[in-house]
Inverse folding.
């Protein structure tokens, strides 16, 4: 999971500054591919939970958030392909919130 999230984070950082629509769309696809692989993983925080309904619920919530992220990245790819850099910026800002929410829920404080 960490490997997939790192690939996503690298693509996200590059997308924030990318102004070439073809390169931006490729980065968005790269990030989507990483998230498709990551959705099958289970965060360490969830793995450490005792088996039961709360663990199942946390796992489902993780997959739901990952699905939302994949959808957001597809929207970003479309915005790049439409050469709508204002929309790309809006999506980048929305992703910042998604990232924070996901990290707050599924990562241990270091």
């Amino acid at each position: 999971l960490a490997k997939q999230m790192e690939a996503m984070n690298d693509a996200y950082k590059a997308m924030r500054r990318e102004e070439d629509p073809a390169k931006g769309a490729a980065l968005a696809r790269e990030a989507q591919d990483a998230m498709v692989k990551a959705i099958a993983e289970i965060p360490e925080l969830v793995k450490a939970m005792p088996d039961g309904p709360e663990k199942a619920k946390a796992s489902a919530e993780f997959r739901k958030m990952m699905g939302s992220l994949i959808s957001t990245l597809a929207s970003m790819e479309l915005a790049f392909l439409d050469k709508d850099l204002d929309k790309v910026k809006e999506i980048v800002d929305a992703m910042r919130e998604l990232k924070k929410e996901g990290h707050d829920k599924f990562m241990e404080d270091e």
